[in-house]
Amino acid sequence: MNREERTEQKMQELFHSHAAGDEGTDGEFMQILQGYIFGDVCYTGSLDNRMRELVTVTVLTVLSALPQIKAHVGASLNAGCMPVEIREAVYQCAPFIGFPRTLNAISAMNEVFSQQGIELPLPSQKTLTGRDEKERYEKGLTIQAPLYGDEIKDRYTWLPKPFDEAVPRFLTELCFGDFNTRTGLDEKTRELLMVVLLAALGGAEVQVKSHAAGALKAGNTREEIVCALVHASGYMGIPRLFNALNTCKELLAE
Predict the structure, then answer these.
(1) Per-residue pLDDT for 55 more than 90?
(2) Average pLDDT score, the chain
(3) Residues 6 or more apart whose Cβ sits within 8 Å of residue 5
(4) Comparing C-alpha atoms, which of 87, 42, 97 is closest to residue 64?
(5) What pLDDT, on a 0 to 100 scale, did the predictor assign at position 152?
(6) Where are the alpha helices (DSSP H) in the chain?
(7) pLDDT of residue 159
(8) What is the pTM of this model?
(9) Residue 39 has what DSSP assignment?
(10) Closest of 91, 83, 178 to residue 122, by C-alpha
(11) Which helix (H) or strand (E) holds 159?
(12) Going by C-beta distance under 8 Å and a sequence separation of 6 or more, which residues neighbour residue 65?
């Protein structure tokens, strides 16, 4: 297939619509956009449509691109993503982008689910029982420690009390306890999505490198991480792609 045919095929697969022509006020721009994302990037690397759409929804959530979130939630369903997978990809953005932007993305996502006749609320993916106040920390740490060790705890011992203890604990309880203990996404997928999430934020290169290392430990290959970052480039921009690749060079180079 040539580039035009690839673009048309991918648009049909994801959106059940034709690729852009000259119609509308900005047909030329849409042809450039679709040619790059759906004609080039989507055919480069090993990730399938399902994983690519989870990457896309994650990046769009970071960027608060609500109209595009709606379009790609629909595309995710067309690509074979389960509604709970899409929801978990959005939910786990909260510790990194804050709750308000995540709530906006959830609202956009749920609007599409309702339009598609998907019953809300979706089935619970919570595994925490809530019977023990230490449960969030202890179960979160069992996920965090094999991937990241005590790096954060050791790094912030200089904070004044009680924050020297509270800040690392909040990270463990919120990121790993509240979110990573949930079902709906496996550990490998969660870690890969965290890499592109942090890359899309911009200015989080230290965390990008840390989570790239965690993604490798969780079973992702170097090619899959690069593929996810390159796929995200059409949404987060080329500079953030290069920043992420440069900061992870030692981890990802052949």
Answers:
(1) yes
(2) 97
(3) none
(4) 97
(5) 81
(6) 3-15, 27-34, 49-63, 66-78, 83-91, 94-97, 99-115, 135-148, 151-155, 163-171, 187-201, 205-217, 222-236, 238-247, 249-252
(7) 96
(8) 0.96
(9) I
(10) 83
(11) none
(12) 235
* Nearest alpha carbon to residue 69 among 132, 38, 128, 113: 113
- Is the four-CA dihedral 149, 152, 155, 160 of positive or negative sign? negative
Residue 43 structure tokens: 């055919």
pLDDT for the residue 154: 83
Amino acid letter, 55: V
Tell which residue, 155, 179, 174, has the closest CA to residue 165: 155
Q: Which tens digit of pLDDT belongs to each residue from 140-198?
A: 999 999 999 877 888 899 999 999 999 999 999 999 999 999 999 999 999 999 999 99
Whether pLDDT at 78 is above 90: yes
CA distances from 79 to 14, 45, 102 (A): 6, 17, 23
